[in-house]
Amino acid sequence: MAKDILYLKIAKAITEQIHSETLQFGDRLPSLRSAQKLYNVSLNTIKLAYMELESRSLVESRPKYGYFVSQTSQRKLALPSIAKIKESEIEKNPQDLIDKVFGTISNPDLTQFALGIPGKSFLPLAKLKKSIINVIKNKNDSGTNYEPVQGSEQLRREMAKWALVLEGKITEDDLVITSGAMNAIYNCLMAVTKPGDSVAVESPVYFGILQAIQLLGLKAVEIPTHPISGIDLDALKKALPKLSACCFVTNFNNPLGFQMPDENKKELVRLITEYNVPLIEDDLYGNLYFGAERPKPCKFYDEAGLVMWVGSVSKSLAPGYRVGWVAPGQFKERIIRQKLVQTVCSPSLYSDVIADFLEHGRYDHHLRMFRKKLYANYLQIQKSVTEYFPDNTKISEPKGGFMLWLELDKRICTEDLYDEALSKKINFAPGRMFSQYNQYQNCMRLNYALEWTDRVESDLEKLGKMIKNRI
Amino acid sequence: MAKDILYLKIAKAITEQIHSETLQFGDRLPSLRSAQKLYNVSLNTIKLAYMELESRSLVESRPKYGYFVSQTSQRKLALPSIAKIKESEIEKNPQDLIDKVFGTISNPDLTQFALGIPGKSFLPLAKLKKSIINVIKNKNDSGTNYEPVQGSEQLRREMAKWALVLEGKITEDDLVITSGAMNAIYNCLMAVTKPGDSVAVESPVYFGILQAIQLLGLKAVEIPTHPISGIDLDALKKALPKLSACCFVTNFNNPLGFQMPDENKKELVRLITEYNVPLIEDDLYGNLYFGAERPKPCKFYDEAGLVMWVGSVSKSLAPGYRVGWVAPGQFKERIIRQKLVQTVCSPSLYSDVIADFLEHGRYDHHLRMFRKKLYANYLQIQKSVTEYFPDNTKISEPKGGFMLWLELDKRICTEDLYDEALSKKINFAPGRMFSQYNQYQNCMRLNYALEWTDRVESDLEKLGKMIKNRI
């Protein structure tokens, strides 16, 4: 039997197993060597069969871990729909709701699906403590000296070395250290806009970005956003002539979870370059990928210095340290000036600790573990939502990060649901937080970077029941 | 002989010693007990004599240390003059000059008269290090948790307890922690102004305040300022109807060093209340007093909640920690919102260290030593300037803090002098940095919070010679 027919036969057999749910989403296929024995064929034939399955999106390869039945192979719930944003829509500031939700996120009694930061069990707390103690012991000035305004040179150097994804396109000289990613975004907005200007954002949009835009007297222009490919580039193109800036979360978007495809990123950079509009690219989830490799940011395709590439360790290592950065391209001097006036400089100790973590490979080591845990949790929450929530629930397909976006039955108001859930000690982020218009009332965002306990599982079941009771 | 004649005779004898320079500025008078034996009179008579001298400003009492010959008793150099600010004056942004001076302040080879922070030998570095290690050892979260946006409750509680000068008028609830005093000022400006608004400042004005005002698109209104009593209240009154805010350094002003008298503070608060104009009161030097007690801030007299009282530990304990605070009165919610959007929260470790320092009395202990050293240095620099600089040099009379303001002969351009001084490894802050107009070209600010070595002394001599050569 010819090899090419053999591998197709094996692929067909596995496809049937997937369709009959003998193999389910998240299951690992037998290793190449086991499968070789199982089907009694050459290693190459098995490889061809698995690649065939991968090309049909039935399985995903995860380097070093093997092949897994993919989500798309068995998706039972639909993707969230794309919002049609009408400019005529009445603005309804979500501030009251944001305040309400934020008021509960430090309550330790709640299951914190609303949080935007990973749970403690995901962070290398002991190693961080050790690093802080080592760093402070070696600091002659006990951390009292001012750092350069641009930020610790050591940290910037380590950051630049570590940002392999940019393939050497940035050096320490191109980076400015900030007080977390939000501070970088705030400074970028200050640098390239003046009150009254318009800034394009995704829709749904991370509410922190919306708050910054509104606080600075700017106008947010919500662009329709696809749950898999991100911002609608045609809609953006129409808006570009009147924009002063764009602000997008391109990788593992908050809240939608998408990874903007490379071709879209290239086209986005081409468009902003054509219209000479700066792009603030919030890439703070970029290292939390489920796939084979860290996705490229738009910054990689930027020749004109228009992309201001923002990152931080808040989502991946140490939220409270407030260490972020920006590679602001042609706007570097404005950002440094803004930082000087706003805070003089960053506290040096945390910069040194993060630099230490990067230098000794501890951050990479941590991220490898963290990504595995996040992916496992994603599979968990995906399964639980599919099981407990109504069948007409629409669910995002995050390619990384730790946010799940759900679109529920039209009759559900997640703001009302929030109160009921809270009374049962369950927290989530209601959809209306993610728009300046009265939108996404039937949506919610769930954080899944929490220790997966029986309580978490049963709380999702409770939440599903509450929703079913409301239909 | 009647007591009242006796004490006057003793006062007269001492006055003559002062005038003949047997007793010189800064010298300590004999203790009450020694003087009692010396003059063979009752303790009470000596007390009366010393109080008489004090009432004539010939001596100053410093509780627990005794009586000292005062500066005014023997002042040889005149006070700086009050600038006449013409609105018609052409604006000349001092940014280029500020950048130039800032570019050299981390150069360890220079004698740093330009710096706005105390030298390392003035800070309790070992105790700070110990405190950091203790704090981090006890933190279960290794500092990764977010703090409340308003700031660490423990720090705010300790701050409120420690702010005795306000006599219990503020609680932890009234304070917001910021990233240093400049960050507090920036947030206060953001909270109460919009671009195009006018903000009153002193003249000469601390350049950081000027930079913040300009960066936010505001207009700085420079008000003539007296080197002893501060802002000219009549001039301010005329400007008030068109102001959106005032921003003053009321205690140990930077650069003039004055302590605004209590009656002026009361009147200032009365005026801003009448016109309903918020006052940002930058009181970050307030604890570095040379006199008997910590002066009251305007905040003490504020009933309407219009005074936003700003402080920090940057000038007195740990510049690089970036810990400041503001008691923003009626603008608290706006400040908290601004902070949330700008940085989410402060890093917790430094808050805990400062709280620890306050709680265990270490800050008080440090301040007592620090004030003594600063006062000694002030006497030193005052003497050296009097000795080495031309006789027509005008010199400020700081009542605390560590900044000296000099007004030189009209023919001197301190910007040119700066280059010559720098070539001899001496640094200072040229006067033009302290105005948006082309003013104070013959002025300079000297920092005297540096270890008083022979080199410092000889550098002042060199500086004096350079000036003399230019007349």
Describe the structure in brief.
Two copies of one chain form a homodimer. By secondary structure, chain A is of the alpha/beta class. Chain A has 16 helices and 16 strands.
Can you tell me about this structure?
The structure is a homodimer of 471-residue chains. By secondary structure, chain A is an alpha/beta fold. The first copy, chain A, folds into 3 domains: 72 residues, Arc Repressor Mutant, subunit A, CATH 1.10.10; 133 residues, Aspartate Aminotransferase, domain 1; 224 residues, Type I PLP-dependent aspartate aminotransferase-like (Major domain) (Aspartate Aminotransferase, domain 2). Helices cover 41% and strands 13% of the residues of chain A. The first copy, chain A, has 16 helices and 16 strands. In chain A, the strands form 4 sheets. The first copy, chain A, has an 8-stranded mixed sheet with strand order 4-11-10-9-8-5-6-7, with helices on both faces. In chain A, strands 12-13-16-15 form a 4-stranded antiparallel sheet. In chain A, a hairpin with a 7-residue loop joins strand 12 and strand 13. Chain A is globular. The termini of chain A are far apart. The mean pLDDT of chain A is 92. At the A-B interface, helix 6, helix 8, helix 9, helix 12 and helix 13 of A face helix 6, helix 8, helix 9, helix 12 and helix 13 of B.
